[in-house]
Amino acid sequence: MINPSYKEMLQGKSVIRELSEYATARGKEIGYENVFDYSLGNPSVPCPQDYTDVVIDMYRNKPSSYIHSYSPSLGIESVRHAVAESLNRRFGMNYETKHIFMAIGAAGALAHAFRLVTQPGDEIIVFAPFFPEYREYIRRTGAVMRLVPADTQSFQINFKEFEKALNPRTQAVLINTPNNPSGIAYSTQTIQKLADILREKQKEYGHDIFLISDEPYREIVFEGADSPYPSRFYDNTLSCYSFSKSLSLPGERIGYIAVNPKATDADILAVICGQISRGIGHNCPSSTSQLAVAQVLDKTSDLSVYETNMNILYKALKELGFTVVKPGGTFYIFPKALEDDAVAFCMKAKKYDLILVPSDSFGVPGYFRMAYCIDTEKVKRSIPVLRRFVREQYGVNG
């Protein structure tokens, strides 16, 4: 018999994917250049030429066994060593090779991290707004996701509600900073306070509480934003990273877990991740991707376009009277809709070929997300359309 729980998931398809598919289909009708598609967070800038050159050189000059052999379960040792050294240079950490586990992107890293520190029935605290797939990532481990409501004034952590959510079943706390969908980077003050509370609760409950830090947007931080490295503040931290955004390599699905060297059982956690892979068949990424990223660890794509696009949109949204917290990074902005029903708001926008994502699945009703990883020229052309939409539908002039 087909597993009924997965059949049920067909009834709850990702609204982001549905809107992206609609935008693609609409583009075939009127030309995709005329569809202002802010649905999908697919990096729009090219990967660095250095990465491409490394791959080409490997394929031309390295033996087949070097490129195509199975990777060790924890990842290629030289790559893990290079990742550790890069993190140490950049963030003043003391990682060793044994603290790095190579994973299939941030999703693969999270799949291992959740299983590493929880058993069925344990709770993982998540802060709204959050990436919708967290629900299934956590549910499929047997753990329980406990959601903390958002502080919509700042989209920093709502500490009052967080402390209510904490209980002896809490085994992990998941953060995503800079955040999808809000674009907000948690400040040093926020991370420090979070760490202080977790240390206190570990003592009170008599067991470890791990901080799982989902960091695919770590390198997309805007001028003036305060965006610290969480592992510097709390020993029991697992940093889950993807090169999808920093190097514009989403299709390669390459990332890692970095175990804080001061964490409980730090020296064996990556090894345990290898055993988790045996249980879920979610084995390490391709050897090509691992070997190539190891040569460009301190490089990024030209990410400046995202800040340019953010500033254009933020200015226009504010002029039109939207309530919106200015992003500190990522390529997302998260304004409040002009009516309580965000789905209705976004459906009205579709009539203008503005593809916006309603906020319900992100755990904060009444908002919408715009993924502005598109050409700046297209962002600029979308502004008059946005103005016409809010004027005709809501009587707003700006």
Compile the SSE list and pairings.
Elements lengths: L3 H6 L5 H16 L5 E2 L11 H13 L2 H5 L8 H15 L8 E4 L1 H13 L5 E5 L6 H6 L4 E5 L10 H7 L4 E7 L11 H18 L4 E5 L22 E6 L12 E5 L6 H15 L6 H7 L10 H16 L12 E2 L8 H9 L3 E2 L1 E2 L9 E4 L4 H19 L4
Parallel strand pairs: 1-10, 3-4, 3-5, 5-6, 6-7
Antiparallel strand pairs: 2-8, 7-8, 9-12, 11-12
Helix pairs in contact: 3-11, 6-10, 12-14
Q: Can you characterise this structure?
A:
By secondary structure, the chain is an alpha/beta fold. It has two domains: 4-47 and 302-394, Aspartate Aminotransferase, domain 1; 49-293, 3-Layer(aba) Sandwich (Aspartate Aminotransferase, domain 2). The chain has 14 helices and twelve strands. A seven-stranded mixed sheet has the order 2-8-7-6-5-3-4, with helices on both faces. α9 links the parallel β5 and β6 (210-214). α3 (49-61) crosses α11 and α12 runs parallel beside α14. The longest helix has 19 residues, at 376-394. The protein is globular. The N and C termini lie far apart (57 Å). The mean pLDDT is 96.
